[in-house]
Amino acid sequence: MQIRPQVSEYNSYYATYTNLVSDGNIIHILEQQMKETNLLLKEISNSEGLFRYAPTKWSIKEVIGHIADTERIMAYRLLSIARGETAELPGYNDDMYVLRAAFDKQSMQDLLENLIVVRQSTLYLLRSLDKEAWSQRGNANNSEVTVRALAYIIAGHELHHLQIIKERYLGSDVYPAT
User: Which residue from 1, 159, 131, 165 is spatially nearest to 70, judged by alpha carbons?
Assistant: First the structure.
């Protein structure tokens, strides 16, 4: 699917994410993104994964867990809408999810494996969709959204957080030296 979603296909809040995604086949973009994310994060040690650039901010491990949780939720929305769900799909509290997940107790390897498995599952789902499914509309978190938009939101959400990891975590003057 190479057609970018129109702004009418998602809540304007998500433009922050969709605007980060390059033009091209979204499935190929998500495949490449998975490789680049793994390359960036695989060398971070468990202790470095606990780094926070400010006391009230998530650790690197928590950011990785949040990316995976959000992709799972967006993929569920995508699946539901693609299959014709008419019920409103609920929002979620990402801070509560991170707090209850105890990502800091998990290894970096486990968190990365989880992220890769979630992405692989998303990719299998996207590859299974027929042309008509991509333009299906549904309601998630009190906003209309299309399947196509959700695929771009998934990609853009990860790009957003990877940019933060690079700039505020790995690029921090106080990031632990290896």
Answer: 159
